[in-house]
Write a structure and sequence with these properties.
Nitrilase/N-carbamoyl-D-aminoacid amidohydrolase; about 15% strand; six-stranded mixed sheet; 2 domains; alpha/beta
């Protein structure tokens, strides 16, 4: 009878916890476009974590999962914009949205579970952590715990960007892409360093609020909770401000014309629209070439097919205007032996001013269900969930494109390859003057996807210390300087970033480039967080019994 009388109270408390976790997930979403309130990122992790304060491990996991699921469902809603239906039902986009969000939610769920499992307080192994227990523990234990929470979030974020080919979308640090003094730390730690500072500060602030609530007579302890992460944050901002203000003067300029045709994805899938689509891009190119650029760039999917007719037209365009052209096209390896099947690649080509193909780069990071179907040989029904008929083969290496007049080097990234820190790093060598990203975001209509990808691309420029030029089908076409500033962005006459037209930019290039720490040594910080996360998790049993 006593248990029956208490159950409604328990259920109400449980319901409140889930509402709090969901609120934490929504705060994380608000930190990213299109809402974009970057300050929400500094609150969301703490709210999500403390929604599970005082509960057991299993419930803590599911509270974290609920918050994470809501976050990814709301942040990745643009997947539902894919104009593909199966027998009139948008099964593919809906299934992808649900499956991807459900998968990604495991990472914040694991984080919440691990954080409360390794809490550095004196308690029995099976005893939940309560407000009182946490507030009355020593300041040093709470400070160390906050630090460990930041390590584990960063380590799990790193794993999400690597495991099963990786999905590095909306790393928490990318929400701060406009806070230029802060994001300069990415030149050392990658975007993971910004993520670490956000989570460390967020959890410390939540701890401070809890201590203040439980021990109001000791208000001075509020500062002891946050002094270490605030000190680290302040040092990073001061250093970033110094770096941000000491940009070297350009040694030379290269004039670039980027075409944004804004072709609907339904037209790209319709072979009958190929002629009109090609004519549209050629017309925009002729208009852009009136400004006499050194390089003309077409986005991914702008060229319907590499045929004798399109090759001749492009060659005449390059020769007639004496311009280098960078574009995307399907590439193929024909079988050398009877019985072998051809291999198709999503590739980027460099066409010289003489109308000759000089270099070919084959995309290495393929989009699951967009460019290949996993396990399709064993599970053929998976092909029903995607509009693609064939499959691409991944490339094996990055390629440098040499533009002779002017004498500059660039390396192309195709589609969402600019989301991967390690990928962009491998494309940036000693000779690379700038990176170029060719992508087709027309899959997702006019949603938040374009802005979320562009925000992540900002960090590729900072991490490697080189400008990055983005040429897209329907946004965001722009160029980003080595400090992470979006200097110029295409907008049509109506002010929309999704419209059709072209962007002509004077890209300043430095003389001898000084390679950043990140470009030289890679994800040292990120993998260190992964290693520390494993050590913390393995040592959880010992920590839980510490005196």
């Amino acid at each position: 009878m006593e248990a029956a009388r208490q159950s409604p109270i328990v259920n109400r408390k449980c319901g409140f916890r889930y509402l709090l976790a969901i609120f934490g997930g929504l705060l994380l979403t608000c930190a990213f476009p299109k809402i974009y309130v970057p300050g929400a990122a500094w609150v969301g992790p703490g709210v999500l974590l403390f929604a599970a304060l005082g509960v057991g491990g299993r419930r803590a996991f599911w509270l974290g999962y609920a918050g994470g699921l809501v976050h990814f469902l709301t942040a990745l809603y643009w997947l539902l914009n894919i104009p593909y239906t199966w027998h009139g039902i948008p099964l593919g986009p809906g299934a992808a949205w649900l499956a991807l969000s459900a998968y990604c939610a495991f990472f914040p769920a694991t984080w919440v579970w691990l954080c409360w499992r390794v809490i550095l307080c004196r308690r029995r192994t099976d005893e939940p952590v309560t407000c009182k227990v946490l507030a009355e523990s020593s300041w040093r234990k709470r400070a160390l715990w906050c630090f460990c929470c930041a390590v584990m979030w960063t380590g799990l974020e790193m794993v999400r960007g690597w495991f099963l080919t990786g999905f590095p979308w909306n790393y928490l640090g990318t929400s701060q892409f406009r806070i230029y003094p802060l994001i300069q730390i990415a030149s050392v730690t990658g975007v993971y360093g910004v993520t670490f500072l956000i989570v460390w500060t967020s959890v410390a602030l939540a701890c401070a609020a809890l201590v203040l609530f439980n021990r109001p007579q000791k208000k001075y302890e509020l500062w002891t909770e946050v002094i270490v992460p605030f000190g680290a944050l302040g040092a990073v901002v001061v250093w970033g401000t110094t770096t941000y203000r000491t940009e070297s003067a350009p040694a030379r300029m290269v004039r670039i014309a980027s075409i944004q045709p804004s072709i609907p994805q339904t037209v790209i899938w319709d072979p009958q629209g190929d002629a009109g689509r090609f004519e549209k891009v050629m017309t925009l190119s002729e208009q852009a070439l009136a400004s006499k650029p050194d390089v003309l760039i077409w986005p991914e999917s702008a060229l319907p097919a590499w045929t004798a007719e399109t090759a001749e037209a492009l060659s005449k365009l390059a020769i007639g205007h004496h311009v280098s052209i960078i574009l995307c096209a399907d590439d193929v390896d024909r079988p050398q032996k009877p019985g072998d099947v051809p291999k198709y690649y999503n590739a980027s080509l460099l066409l010289s001013p003489e109308g000759v193909i000089k270099e070919i780069y084959r995309k290495r990071r393929l989009v699951i269900f967009g460019e290949y179907v996993p396990l399709s040989d064993w599970l053929p029904f998976l092909k029903w969930l995607t509009p693609i008929e064939g499959q691409f083969t991944p490339g094996i290496r990055p390629v440098q494109f040499h533009l002779e007049n002017p004498d500059v080097w660039t390396s192309p990234l195709i589609c969402f390859e600019d989301m991967f820190p390690a990928e962009a790093r491998e494309h940036t060598t000693d000779e690379t003057d700038f990176l170029v990203n060719l992508t087709n975001d027309g899959w997702f209509g006019k949603g938040a996807e374009q802005w979320q990808q562009c925000n992540s691309a900002v960090f590729r420029a900072v991490e490697n210390g080189v400008p990055l030029v983005r040429c897209t089908n329907n946004g965001i076409t722009c160029w980003i300087d080595p400090m992470g500033r979006i200097i110029e962005m295409f907008r049509d006459k109506a002010g929309s970033a999704y419209g059709e037209g072209f962007l002509v930019t004077e890209l300043p290039l430095r003389g001898k480039r000084v390679r950043t720490f990140y470009n030289r040594y890679g994800d040292v910080f990120g993998w260190s967080c992964v290693g520390l996360t494993l050590l913390i998790a393995l040592g959880a049993g010992r920590f839980r019994r510490c005196e």
